[in-house]
Amino acid sequence: MKYTLAIVALISMTTQETTAIAVSADRVHNSALVQESESDSDSDAQNVALRCDGDDDDHSCEVFTPNMDGQVDGSYERNVTPRFDADTDDIFMRSMIKTYANEKKTKDGSPSGAFIMTEGAAKAAAAEVLETHKGLTGGAKAAYLDTYFPKAWRHFDVNQGGSIEVIKMPQFMRFIASDQYMSLQP
Length: 186
Description:
Elements: H1 2-31, E1 33-38, E2 47-52, E3 63-64, H2 91-100, E4 102-105, E5 111-118, H3 119-134, H4 138-156, E6 163-165, H5 169-177
Antiparallel strand pairs: 1-2, 3-4, 4-5, 5-6
């Protein structure tokens, strides 16, 4: 009887794992996201634009990058979530939104107010936080990021979608710094 239950549990776990892999592969296939790297001579940051394949009128897979804020043509102005907009609010979150996060577009191409962090943006933000809050610089910071960033990213991007919500960044920073009590405010 013990062995039967163990075998049933093992089969159940294997089936769930296979189903999860199939669902994940299906989501990747169905979303058909294409990443295009764009270079900007005025910025050191890498811009990632997501584009939906298929409907040219659907812009919901596209994003506004931080360097698009205040463009000369006035086509985009970044509005920080009201919850984080005042000096009395969470300065860390305002910095993440203004400096690192991409803002998703709505279907018609207008700003949605939903901010996400790509892996590259999260790594750049983590480098800044590790330097300012943990005193890591130069080779020590690079070695630390090389060692711990991939695990931290996989921990938060569990569906391997390539991005996480910006609201998760305080937890992400505490996780990568291995300091759950770290204050992120200046």
